[in-house]
């Protein structure tokens, strides 16, 4: 991720964090706060199309991502007062190693692909709880910034070895809308679903999460959550006159530690 991308994303996160931690909000007695660091065991699938021709497809599972990750951080923070509230969420993964696969047609036999990806996702928004209780249906709305630094090297072995490099190093900013629903199961258990769809700089981005949680401790302010998340991003850009369309999908198990106060 280049310095321009990094500066835009960091600036956005600083602005969202400053809002979340502003003095007026922290001093408000009726606010309920939630902090949740989490881990996402996401596998990666990336499809690349150049001038409407599918030229690359690569899949990397969680064990490969774990071996190749230089840095990773994921955290969710939100505040609620009555029926309304806000949230911020940040995810960063730096994958530095390369993976070589045999490409599908129309590339010739023996051609090889090296693909790598760095990903930063930051989102901030608000929600409105229709019922106003501790659980129920929330309407979500907000802005999501995605910094994507991808590079694909295609090596053609014959008739003479030729290497073509393409990729993307950009920040995409989308608006999104969605909903989430939570419901208790017995005394300490609950389940929750979230879905949203966004567009703007990307053609479309959609995100879906399903989790089950259990509270523990005398006050019940701590809980563990487990579930599954999938996010897909479709976008296009121009590189030396070529139209490059990229489809990136993250999917896998998610787990987090939740603190409420």
Instruction: Summarize model confidence as the mean pLDDT.
Output: 77
What is the ordering of alpha helices and beta strands? HHEEHEEEEEEEEEE
Class per helix and strand makeup: mainly beta
Give the full name of the CATH homologous superfamily: OPCA outer membrane adhesin/invasin
Q: Which CATH architecture would you pick? A: Beta Barrel
Per CATH, the class reads Mainly Beta
The gyration radius over C-alpha positions equals 21 Å
Total number of β-strand segments? 12
Any low-confidence stretches, pLDDT <50, length ≥5? Answer: none
* Fraction of residues in helix: 10-25%
Tally of DSSP helical segments = 3
Question: Which outline best applies?
Answer: elongated
Largest sheet: 10 strands, antiparallel, barrel
Explain this structure to me?
This protein has 261 residues and is mainly β. The chain has one domain: OPCA outer membrane adhesin/invasin (Lipocalin). Helices cover 11% and strands 69% of the residues. It is built from three helices and twelve strands, in the order H-H-E-E-H-E-E-E-E-E-E-E-E-E-E. Strands 1-3-4-6-7-8-9-10-11-12 form a ten-stranded antiparallel barrel. A hairpin with a 2-residue loop joins strand 3 and strand 4. The two termini are 36 Å apart.
């Amino acid at each position: 991720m280049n310095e321009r991308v990094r500066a835009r994303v960091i600036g956005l996160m600083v602005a969202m964090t400053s809002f979340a931690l502003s003095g007026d909000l922290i001093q408000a007695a009726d606010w309920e706060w939630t902090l949740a660091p989490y881990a996402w065991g996401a596998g990666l699938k990336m499809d690349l199309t150049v001038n409407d021709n599918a030229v690359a497809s690569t899949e990397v599972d969680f064990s490969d991502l774990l071996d190749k990750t230089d840095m990773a951080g994921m955290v969710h923070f939100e505040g609620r007062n009555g029926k309304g509230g806000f949230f911020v969420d940040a995810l960063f993964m730096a994958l530095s190693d390369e993976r070589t696969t045999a490409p599908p047609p129309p590339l010739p036999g023996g051609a090889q692909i090296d693909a790598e990806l760095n990903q930063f996702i930051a989102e901030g928004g608000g929600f409105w709880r229709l019922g106003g209780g501790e659980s129920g249906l929330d309407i979500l709305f907000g802005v999501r910034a995605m910094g994507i630094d991808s590079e694909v090297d295609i090596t053609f072995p014959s008739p003479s070895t030729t290497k073509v490099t393409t990729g993307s190093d950009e920040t995409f900013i989308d608006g999104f809308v969605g909903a989430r629903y939570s419901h208790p199961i017995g005394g300490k258990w609950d389940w929750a679903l979230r879905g949203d769809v966004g567009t703007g700089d990307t053609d479309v981005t959609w995100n879906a999460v399903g989790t089950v949680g259990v509270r523990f401790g005398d006050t019940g302010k701590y809980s563990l959550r487990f579930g599954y998340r999938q996010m897909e991003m479709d976008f296009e850009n121009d590189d030396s006159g070529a139209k490059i369309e990229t489809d990136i999908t993250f999917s896998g198990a998610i787990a987090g530690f939740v603190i409420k106060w």
